[in-house]
Amino acid sequence: MSLDVKQTEHRPIGNADELVQFLRDAERPTGDLLLGLEHERLIFPQGSNEPVPYGGASGIGALLNGFKQFGFTEFREAPDLPVIAMQRGTETLTLEPGGQFELAGSPFKTALEAHRENQRHNEEFQQVLAQLKLRSVNLGYRPFFTLPEMPWMPKSRYGVMRASLGARGSHAHHMMLMTATGQVSLDWRDEADCVAKVVASVRISPLLLAMYANSPIVAGKASGFQSFRSRVWNDVDRARCGYPQAMLDGSFSYRAYVEWALDAPLLFIRRDGKYVWPKLTFREFLAKGFDGQPATHSDWVDHLSTLFPEVRLKKIIEIRAADSNAPEMTSALGAVMRGILYDAQAREAATHLLPKLSPDEHRALHDAAQKDGLSAAVGNKTLADYAAEFVSIAHRGLERLGGGDEVLLAPLQKIAAKRAAPAVHVLATFEKYGTSFLDHL
């Protein structure tokens, strides 16, 4: 989740037009379009399936501090509070509520540049893990233990969200404590370009979900889902998750996203250094304020970071369909989405790759992909029947764009050829080795 930096824009919001302008201000010239990768990982002690607490000589806090040797500096919410992130230039290491460890990488022009940064980080990461006798696992959901056994990280945002989001859905805490994902963020030129990229991303999200499905084991048992991580999101908060209707029915625009976001309940606002739960939608907050104070532009930035649609807008477009996977799969995510979204011809082809579905049919396909992965049915075909062409479309787009990113598509080409997501291998390994299966992935 987001790193809450100091609020700087205390100007009250006059009306919703200013929120539309917020998105317009994010537009970038064609030559300045960048991408960035995020990769979350699950942390375990060596030789154990136990969760790792924040404190202690080999805790998550020590893991963060281990990166000082590589030039990272501490980030604290206040001088007397624990370290919750590390920063080095435009790289940020942050914590999810259950101790999931996230690298939010720098923005680059090509996925290959992001991949090289990812490689360097992974080398540093493995050194620190070895020093602390820890290990990381690339899965989309923690395969052992249950919510009551999980530690919570000492981040103020998570304290209030534990209550505010926990009240919204039966799987909210599962999402916070147990899931891990890989994401790619991209830019847009203008509103028409943003709309085209969002619509294309939404259309292919079930296929991307299926190809990256990597979380079949839950509480030490096969869950019946190839991506239980994605399944969890169905019951977090329907007002802020899934697919906003406008993304599916042809009416998407800056204004449509703002209107959808306004109707989502606030999870918190920050006042006088504290996190407060107003129990209002942002629309209500904008109309009447809270505790005598108006809604500000910084409040809006915070609110956008607490919305979790499959394709999210902030100052960037975030693609959120993928489970956490091996680092090369995260790099492939950057490459495939650069090829699809930054080349107009590829974007058009990807938009129409799958059959045209109604909003309800699209959501049903998304749910089927959670359960069955690439075996999910699309009419008289399966998602596996579209995987190879999807990767080929991206490959051709990358060739036209230049930069050499095509080499990063190899893991997705293998998945398309095998017609099976990583979850299939994970499940087979679990069936063979049981509770020691993490040692054999």
TrEMBL record:
<dbReference type="InterPro" id="IPR035434">
    <property type="entry name" value="GCL_bact_plant"/>
</dbReference>
<dbReference type="Pfam" id="PF04107">
    <property type="entry name" value="GCS2"/>
</dbReference>
<comment type="similarity">
    <text>Belongs to the glutamate--cysteine ligase type 2 family. EgtA subfamily.</text>
</comment>
<dbReference type="GO" id="GO:0004357">
    <property type="term" value="F:glutamate-cysteine ligase activity"/>
</dbReference>
<dbReference type="GO" id="GO:0005524">
    <property type="term" value="F:ATP binding"/>
</dbReference>
<dbReference type="GO" id="GO:0006750">
    <property type="term" value="P:glutathione biosynthetic process"/>
</dbReference>
<keyword id="KW-0067">ATP-binding</keyword>
<keyword id="KW-0547">Nucleotide-binding</keyword>
<dbReference type="InterPro" id="IPR006336">
    <property type="entry name" value="GCS2"/>
</dbReference>
<keyword id="KW-0436">Ligase</keyword>
<protein>
    <recommendedName>
        <fullName>Glutamate--cysteine ligase</fullName>
        <ecNumber>6.3.2.2</ecNumber>
    </recommendedName>
</protein>
<comment type="function">
    <text>Catalyzes the synthesis of gamma-glutamylcysteine (gamma-GC).</text>
</comment>
<dbReference type="InterPro" id="IPR014746">
    <property type="entry name" value="Gln_synth/guanido_kin_cat_dom"/>
</dbReference>
